[in-house]
Design goal:
Elements lengths: L22 H5 L15 E7 L5 E6 L2 H4 L4 E6 L11 E2 L2 E2 L10 E2 L5 E7 L2 H10 L2 E5 L14 E2 L8 E3 L2 H6 L3 E9 L2 E2 L7 E7 L2 E6 L4 H11 L7 E4 L15 H13 L3 E4 L2 H7 L2 E2 L2 E9 L5 E12 L21 E10 L13 H19 L3 H7 L17 H12 L11 E3 L2 E13 L6 E6 L5 E4 L9 H13 L6 E4 L16 H16 L7 E5 L1 H6 L6 E13 L4 E12 L6 H20 L31 E5 L22 H13 L10 H6 L1
Parallel strand pairs: 1-16, 14-15, 19-20, 24-25, 28-29
Antiparallel strand pairs: 1-7, 2-6, 2-8, 3-7, 4-5, 9-20, 10-20, 11-18, 12-17, 13-14, 13-16, 18-19, 21-22, 22-27, 23-24, 23-26, 27-28
Helix pairs in contact: 8-15, 11-12, 14-15
The structure holds dioxothiomolybdenum(VI) ion.
Dioxothiomolybdenum(VI) ion binds next to loops.
Length: 695
């Protein structure tokens, strides 16, 4: 297939609102999650995590628990297999993976031992009883802009840019906003806790794990344990959400492999909820300063976005907060800087629209402040600064439908009637306000392989190492394969979720569907070619290389209406509307559900989510769902999502991606609505009751 064309689809499964193919299995309890896999002779590992923030393990008294009922043994740094320090992820080698290698405790909640027993209860009882003696050393977990340890962030992406003369642009502006915005540590909070089961079958390591990409995690695991990749197989049948935290080779998997190796039997390790908080991915806190200057008519002259985020010295990571600033609005001068502050914390990792979610909160709050100072409709301000080409890259946009999102959203929401002055609407004792945010999320595809076999009975077996996190990937890929092969969906037998199925991108970066669809459509095109082979396997690596450079993004406009109770500080979101341009919509039911889920995540970010760290102990005080609040049904009475016609010309089926765009923009829209209701800006998330009352 030519990279710039998009084959019309004859069969029409793509675009149809079909219910998910595994729906029945899920509602009848037949769908297996990783901890449900029946494995004979299973033993259970309970993880022991550090209760101190930084220091050393002086002693772990294994003898004290060895004779407890059902205990098989304990693995700690004294007897664990040695791991390869080169193993890592997207961002490079990751010391966070090197568990039980020495007595050093680099952050709170670090796994320091695994107790293995015949039952989960016996393992956990012994883990709780295991005496550990620590040497406590001073720690630094306090993040702030200007921290002396701060250094330029890795420029793997979201590197610094300097376009035009920002200082001159600001000096010449009629109006300048110069404000500081913050977002806290946040946790992915997937409902299904991380669980892995590992065992050896002869020379081959087998694992069932809850993750976002079995192939890539199998490669990391093989590197970590110094095994040839073909000796590692990871399966992932169903996943109860990931949100980034299952994109990594998790501690549950590493520890299960260690135990299966040591005890010569299958071992299952399931993290407790607090361990999910303490020892899997979290979003780092950010601190961001934005300066924007504009002419009196609202035309931007300059944007300066300087951001800092925290990380761990164990692993490189980039919270790319300044990425959106390079592409969302036309400005003759744009400058971005990103600083990383190493602290004694768990290595942060991708969570729900990494970079874009906190970055858009800052940028879209600042744009709203600019509209306020210009006494201008915030919608008009956005429309006035629509770029023709990438403001920094100079590249054309593959397709850009932000204006359609803004205009249709404004119509549907009733924006035209808005009095743009704050604190003008009251209903009884409540203040009422509305706000909007425009936003984007980068899209594209990564190399993947797929194969298709024409079966004798006229059906097709379609194989790709995709993962379905609960987003509907199985259903989407079945429709894509059916249309690409020009057959009905009933002719498609789809196999996913297994590292043995070949290299494939993970369910991450909003690029799962686009990446897998490309491999499937390419294989289908070959299958329908003149040679009519019985089996086709393709690898899209070379095709990706041929893809012309473009600004490729999904877009959205989010509109929020809130009420604020000035007596209690309580903010309620009454209406939330998102208009989305996400390329071709493969299945409107699933896409809608996905972006609404993203908007709930954005609402949750705006009002609730906050990992609270005690500076004295360095530990989180709320590593559970009692203390760490996430939005629930009652928080969102009316939430709507609609799609504007959109198409990505560079990718097969015109797919962009809908995974993360819903998370972006919502927090700023709500914060802007809170300002409109109260007249007071909320520049630090979450917008807690006490923060509303303070002002
Ligand atoms: Mo995602 S946060 O790209 O898994």
């Amino acid at each position: 297939m030519n990279a710039e064309s998009s084959a019309p689809t004859a069969a029409g499964a793509v675009g149809a609102a079909r219910p998910r193919v595994e729906g029945r299995a899920k509602v009848t309890g037949g769908a297996r999650y990783s901890a449900d896999e029946p494995v004979p002779g299973l033993a259970f590992g309970a993880v022991v995590v550090s209760t101190i923030t930084r220091g050393r393990v002086l002693d772990i008294d294994v003898a004290a628990v060895q004779d407890m009922p059902g205990v098989l043994g304990v693995i700690d740094h004294r007897n664990a297999p040695r791991l390869n320090p080169e193993a890592g992820h997207f961002f490079g080698p990751d010391g966070g993976l090197r568990l039980l290698q020495d007595d050093v405790i680099p952050h709170p909640g670090r796994p320091i031992a695994l107790v293995v027993g015949e039952t989960p209860e016996q393992a956990r009882a012994a883990a709780q009883a295991l005496p550990v003696v620590y040497d406590v050393q001073p720690h630094d977990t306090e993040f702030f802009f200007g921290h002396p340890a701060g250094r330029p962030a890795s420029a793997l992406f979201d590197g610094p840019v300097d376009v035009g003369d920002v200082d001159a642009g600001l000096a010449a502006s009629a109006v300048v906003v110069d404000e500081r915005y913050g977002t806290p540590e946040e946790h992915c909070s997937a409902m299904e806790p991380h669980s892995a089961t590992a065992w050896w079958e002869g020379e081959r390591l087998q694992a069932v794990d809850s993750n976002q990409g079995p192939y890539q995690i199998a490669v990391t695991l093989a590197t970590l344990f110094c095994l040839p990749p073909e000796r590692v197989r990871i399966r992932v049948e169903h996943v109860g959400g990931g949100f980034g935290s299952k994109g990594m080779c998790g501690p549950q998997l590493i520890l299960a492999v260690m135990a299966a190796t040591r005890f010569g039997r299958p071992v299952r390790v399931t993290l407790t909820r607090d361990q999910v908080f303490l020892a899997t991915a979290q979003r780092p806190a950010t601190d961001q300063v934005i300066r924007i200057g504009a002419d009196a008519d609202g035309r931007l002259r300059a944007i300066d976005h300087v951001a800092a985020f925290e990380l761990s010295p164990l692993a490189e990571y980039i919270e790319g907060c300044t990425e959106l600033t390079k592409t969302l609005y036309a400005a003759p001068a744009i400058r971005t800087r990103l600083t990383a502050v190493p602290l004694d914390i768990l290595p942060p990792y991708s969570m729900r629209a990494p970079g874009a979610a906190p970055g858009s909160f800052a940028l879209e709050s600042a744009m709203d402040e600019l509209a306020e100072r210009l006494e201008m409709d915030p919608l008009k301000l956005r429309l006035r600064n629509e770029p023709v080409v990438g403001p920094v890259s100079g590249l054309p946009f593959s397709s850009r439908n932000l204006v359609a999102c803004l205009r249709q959203g404004a119509r549907r929401f009733g924006w035209a009637d808005r009095d743009h002055r704050p604190r003008m609407r009251r209903e009884g004792s409540l203040l009422v306000g509305t706000g909007l945010a425009a936003t984007s999320f980068s899209t594209g595809a990564f190399p993947s392989t797929a194969s298709i076999t024409a079966e004798p009975d006229g059906t097709f077996t379609v194989v790709v190492a995709a993962t379905d996190l609960g987003t509907g990937a199985r259903t989407a890929l079945t429709a894509i394969a059916a249309d690409a092969l020009e057959v009905g969906v009933e002719k498609i037998g789809l196999r996913i979720s297994d590292s043995d199925l070949g290299p494939a991108w993970s369910a991450g970066g909003s690029r799962g569907t686009a990446s897998w669809a490309w491999a499937i459509t390419e294989a289908a095109a070959k299958m329908r070619g003149p040679e009519r082979p019985a089996t086709v396997t393709v690898d899209t690596t070379h095709l990706l290389g041929e893809l012309p450079s473009r600004e490729r993004h999904a877009y959205s406009a989010v509109f929020a209406e809130v009420t604020v109770d000035p007596a209690t500080g309580e903010v309620r979101v009454r209406r939330l509307l998102g208009l989305f341009a996400v390329g071709r919509v493969i299945n409107p039911l699933m896409a809608r559900s996905q972006v609404i889920g993203g908007m709930v995540g954005g609402l949750s970010m705006a009002l609730h989510e906050e990992g609270v760290r005690d500076p004295v102990s360095g530990r989180h005080v709320n590593p559970d769902f009692a203390g760490y609040h996430i939005a629930a049904h009652a928080d969102v009475p009316d939430i709507e999502a609609e799609f504007v016609p959109d198409h990505e010309p560079g990718l097969p089926m015109g797919v962009k991606g809908a995974g993360e765009i819903g998370n972006v923009g919502t927090a700023a829209a709500i914060a802007n609505a809170v300002w409109h209701a109260t007249g007071v800006r909320q520049r630090q998330l979450p917008i807690r009751l006490d923060r509303v009352l303070e002002d």
